[in-house]
Every structure is written in C-alpha cells, then in structure tokens.
Amino acid sequence: MKYFPIFVDAQHIHCLVVGAGEVAARKCELLLKTPAKITIVAPWVSNTVEKLAHSANVTLIRREYEKSDLDNKQMVFVATDSESTNQQIHDQAHALHILVNVVDNTPLCKFITPSIVDRSPIIIAMSSGGVAPVLLRYLRQKLESVIPHNIKRLGTFSEKFRNTVKTSLSSVTDRRYFWEDVLDGDIGENVLQGNKQQAEQQLNSALEKYVGGDKPAGQVYLVGAGPGDPDLLTFRALRLMQKADVVVYDRLVSPEILELVRRDAEKIYVGKEQSNHTIPQQEINQLLANLAKKGNRVVRLKGGDPFVFGRGGEEIETLIEQGIEFQVVPGITAATGAASYAGIPLTHRDHAQSVTFTTGHLRNNTINLDWACMVKPNHTLVFYMGLTALPIICEKLIEYGMPASTPIGLIQSATRVDQKVVTGTLIDIMSNKDTASLQPPTLIIVGGVVSLHKKLNWFGDKSFDESSTQSTHA
Q1: Which fold has domain 219-332?
Q2: Which of 247, 400, 412, 423 has the smallest number of CB atoms closer than 10 Å to its CB?
Q3: Local confidence band at 189 (pLDDT 50, 70, 90 cut-offs)
Q4: Locate the Tetrapyrrole methylase domain: which residues (predicted)?
Q5: Binding site for NAD(+), residues?
Q6: What does pLDDT average to over the chain?
Q7: Where are the domains of the chain?
Q8: Residue 272 falls in the annotated catalytic set
Q9: Using an 8 Å Cβ cutoff, are 329 and 234 in contact?
Q10: What residues are designated binding site for S-adenosyl-L-methionine?
C-alpha cells in the first residue's frame, strides 16, 4: 500500500480550502458532514460555495491566498486553476508539515480522499491510490447497491449498547461472539426493520444469558479453499473465514485466499509436501479438537475439496469422537478447476464417457493402483499428487495396454495467474523440455480429452501450450 488508510477525528481539525469553484465545493460538502472547521480563501466564489458559506463551521475570505492562511491549519485542499499557485501552496504546507491535497494532481498530494459509501455512523472508504478513479466509481456503485441504507440503524444500535456489553463481557472474544450473534440473528433483523424496542429487549435478555454462561461452544469448519483462484470460493467459505478465531491451513491454500481471512485470526500452517510433513495427520486432528475445546471458531482451510484426497474424513472422525461440533463446506476440487481452466473437459461425447480420480502419491517408490481397471476406452484419468511419480504412471499405463500415443496433460498452479499447462503423449511427455520445469501442485490428466486443450484453452499464457507440445527429441 502506498497510502495508509486512516480515519481522522475531525472535531479538532481546522481545514483550509483554497479556491471556491465547483471542485472546491465538492470538498467542502464532504467536510461539512464532519465537525471540522473550514476556512475558504478565494477572490471569486461560485454559487454553490456561497450557499455552503452560510454554515456555522465555514469562514469565507474573499481574496487571494496568503501564506499566513496556513497558520493553525491541520489540513489543506488546493483547488485553483493556477499550477504555480497550487505548487506554491503545496510546498509551503509541506514545509510546515501540514497535510495537503492538490485536487486532481496526485504527485502534489500528501493525502488523498477516498471514495465513500456513507451510512453514518457506518462509513466505507475506498481508494485506488489515484490510479483508477473510474474503476473506483464502479466499485462504489456496486457497494451502494448491495448495502442497505437502513444499515445505519445497526450502527446506531451498536453504539447505544457498546459500553453496556463491554462492561458485562470482559473478554474481547466473548464480546465479538456476542455481537456476531446479535447482528446475524433476529435482533439485527428487528433493528433493520425498525422494531427498535423489541430489539433492545431481545439484546438485554441475550446479554443476561450470555453473562450467565450460556455461550456458544467452539466449532470446527472444514472449508474447501478450491484450486487457487479466490473468485472460486463459495460465499459460505468466505463468511466462515472472516469469522474464524484460528485458521489451520495447508500448503495448497494460495496466498490470495489467505488474505481473505479475518485480519486478527491466528494462522497455523500444517502443510505437507513429498517426504516432508510439518505435522503428522493425527496431530493435526487433535490440534483441531484442542483449539475448539478452548471455545475457538476454527477454520480448517484445505486446498480443493476437504473430502477429495484431503483427509477431511479422518479429521472429522476425531472431532466426532471428542464431541466437537463441526461443519463441512465443499470446495471446487483440483480436477474440475484445473480441467476447466486448461480447456480440457473431463468428459466429452467424442472422447470420454467416464472419469476416474485417483492419487499418484508414491509409497516406497511404487503406486499401488489397479492399473488394469484404469486402462479402458473412452475414459479419462485424473491423478492428484502425481508429478513425482509421472514416469511410473506413464510406464504402467502403457504396460497394461494403453496406447503410447494417448494424450496427457500436466497442469501446474491451476486457476492461478501463473498456471502452466504442458501436453504431450504417454511416450514423449517425459522428454518434453517443459515437463522438467514443473513443480507441485501439478495435476495430471490422461485421455483423449487432452487433445482438446489447444482448441478450447481460454485462460492464461497460451504460449506454454504451443511450446509444450514440442519434444526436445522431435
């Protein structure tokens, strides 16, 4: 972030506005929503500013700017038509360590004003750092359409009972849980509908029960994070991630998805990779239970889907044995995500009427699979965690009767901006120069459907595909 977003207490701010045209008027209108004192200096004044000057907090001085106008000011907006005047005021204010904003001139801005969605006392502020104002307006329009105007009622209601709840519940976590229950439940709904008296009675009753020990128990949420692209998260997954006290995540959860987790949540990494398990699975199972027993809302964040080669079943077995409440939130599994983003349909009328998902994970340098069952016509094979075992996979499939010319696709970092797809055949994929550069996570797809990749590919750098089909021995 180039700009640090803060909200300034305007009760003690005296702001200077130099200029009195329509641009300056817009800044004054925004400032007048606060208790800040405003001094406007300009030799000429627009009708809009003339009307705004009738406010008790506004002082209008009809003359050219003077350096003494900066005395006892904490903030300056400059909105004149003179570049030299704008530069002069910027330099003088900066020398006095006064925050200055020269409107529509980002290099001369020591602060910028955000785009605002105003539901006072709830304020949402957004900024593009001055680089994409049109995009910012678009985002603001989106937010304006989805945030109800009566959300301000919830803000006022929360303010009224804030001290009461704080006095009654000493724990920050307890207070957060209580307010989440209030806002998500019937109390919040009654506030939004204007049933203020009923909502107040409900809150007092709920607070009394909460103080008496009727608090929600800890829970574990097994959440599928999908294949990597944050846009593929479910709404439910995102909601739970933003409510979590603790997030236990694995190696396949992308940094972009972790950014969506509640800022102050504790994050515990339990990632696994070939021959290097940070924490054994049984310890992970018990960790989840122990965290929940302390009253935490625990999100177990897993790449893909928790129940597709994610060992989610083992984790909830432990939770059931120890009486821990849990939920499972499915995610888009790597096979469907990777196939879709690589332009490789897993089934296709002309190529495959069935599909098998299997693991290519090595144990003692072998893969214990029913190879004979896998080798059949009009069928697609998807191997998870199979990159290290790729030579064995190709060898075994050919050994059990699959044609050596069968297409095979390798998809690294599926659905992410650095996605890479390498295609070839069972006989030549290992000699492809691009195969050697691949790293986990890489998904393997085998079958006639892979031949459609070049035609159907729509995502990412297509040059990978062009080069990947050329063998170093061609």
Answers
A1: Cobalt-precorrin-4 Transmethylase; domain 1 (3.40.1010)
A2: 400
A3: confident
A4: 220-426
A5: 22-23, 43-44
A6: 92
A7: 14-113, 150-212, 219-332, 335-456
A8: yes
A9: yes
A10: 227, 303-305, 308, 333-334, 385, 414
Cis amide linkage into residue 121, ω under 30° from 0:
yes
Report CA dihedral (19, 68, 86, 17) to the nearest 10 degrees.
-30
Question: Which among 242, 168, 149 is positioned nearest to 209, based on CA atoms?
Answer: 168
Query: Which CATH number is 14-113's, of 2.40.30.170, 3.40.50.720, 3.10.50.40, 3.40.50.300?
Result: 3.40.50.720
pLDDT, mean of residues 314-343: 96
Extract the annotated binding site.
22-23, 43-44, 227, 303-305, 308, 333-334, 385, 414
- Active-site residue flag, 2: no
What is d(CA 106, CA 425) in angstroms, rounded to the nearest whole number? 54
Q: Which of 110, 272, 454, 462 is catalytic?
A: 272
According to CATH, the superfamily of the domain at 335-456 is Tetrapyrrole methylase, C-terminal domain (3.30.950.10)
Taken in order 135, 136, 137, 138, the sign of the CA dihedral is: positive
Q: Which tokens sit at 388?
A: 């290290």
Active-site position among 245, 250, 428, 434 = 250
Retrieve residue 191's tokens. 């506030």
